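__Record contents__

***
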Amino acid sequence: MGKISVTFILSKHWSTIFRNPNTNRVEPKFGIVYSVVPIVVGVTWTLLLHFSDVLGAGLVRSDVLTAVSILVGFLFGLLIWVFQLRRDYTPSLLVTTDKTITKLLDEVFANTSYAVLLSGVFVALSLVGTGVPTMLHALGEGVAAALLVHLALTLLLLLRRTASAYQKLAKEKDDEREALLQRPARVAQQKNCSGVSPS
């Protein structure tokens, strides 16, 4: 079971939820919202379906399943891109680099892996849930609602951290480019100060 265990993915993802990568401090507020809101939505959805039929077909249907399946493909592409970016990233030697970039990229990779896993779980449960008895239909819909809300929050977190990583990388590249442009002028100034005329 060790080769197919997802414990590592779960532990790495949840370790990023309660800790700010910039300050390395524990910030439980988002973690509580991230954990509680899907449960509240799932329970509410279950009760609404159990006591009324105003929600129609619910969430376990082919169009929702197709949308999440397409999302899994996009997430796999993002996962591969983040892996390649983390592998090829080398801190600049010309400027002071932001030490949180590598940590942020690691967190983006962990969050993306978790989003892929979460999407896969939703697809699998939706396929299994299509044949459940009527008495379990409301419960299955509640679980589906909770998973979708949890996935939506994960995607928002992922977008925020991806944008933050891009901003930090772009700033480092801009600073490095500026340092390269200023380098000839600095060399000439040093030669003039030492009394050597530039050739």
